[in-house]
Design goal:
- This protein has 164 residues and is an alpha+beta fold.
- It has one domain.
- The protein is 38% helix and 26% strand.
- The chain has 5 helices and 7 strands; from the N terminus they run H-H-H-E-E-E-E-E-E-H-H-E.
- Strand 5 and strand 6 form a beta hairpin.
Length: 164
């Protein structure tokens, strides 16, 4: 009886430790799309071609502007990081990173000055919580449907906000 009690206690303690110290799992599983994916390349091309539209919309809605910027990590990998636009001065955006790089170690400043020409995607939040831009996000919604069969409700709701 004592051994059974010890085993049960050990299982409870190990379960608690696993739950407490294991890395959190995302609600939505990660989605990897190759940099050479033709649809993603097309999305980046479209985003860069429409940067003048981004600038015009930013001037009307400066509080709801986000961009993706290619960042080379300490591991030498390029990761596309999301960032909030703080200001636009000439052809330079002042941004605050909102997504951390995965393959980077060491200190990372959250604030950066980025030439507009380096932006690979953009989103402007319009009145009514609608979104303009987000070309890479649209590709990711499509890829997620291919991988998962359907989108989780949270992503369906997000996708419905994008307008042409």
């Amino acid at each position: 009886m004592k051994i059974a009690l010890i085993v049960v206690a050990a299982v409870v303690v190990l379960g608690f430790l696993w739950f407490r110290f294991s890395p959190p799992r995302p609600v939505i599983p990660p989605l990897a799309i190759d940099d050479d994916d033709p649809e993603m390349k097309e999305a980046r091309t479209k985003a860069q071609a429409t940067l003048p539209e981004f600038v015009a919309l930013y001037r009307q809605h400066p509080d709801g502007a986000m961009v993706k910027w290619p960042f080379v990590t300490s591991a030498g990998r390029t990761e596309y990081l999301g960032a909030e636009v703080l200001s636009l001065e000439g052809d330079v955006l002042k941004i605050r990173l909102s997504t951390p790089p995965v393959s980077h170690t060491g200190k990372l400043e959250r604030l950066h000055d980025v030439p507009l020409k380096e932006i690979v995607d953009w989103v402007i939040v319009l009145p009514g919580d609608k979104r303009k831009g987000g070309y890479s996000m649209r590709v990711m919604f499509k890829a997620a449907r291919k991988q998962w069969g359907d989108l989780p409700n949270q992503l369906k709701e997000e996708e419905s906000k994008y307008v042409d």
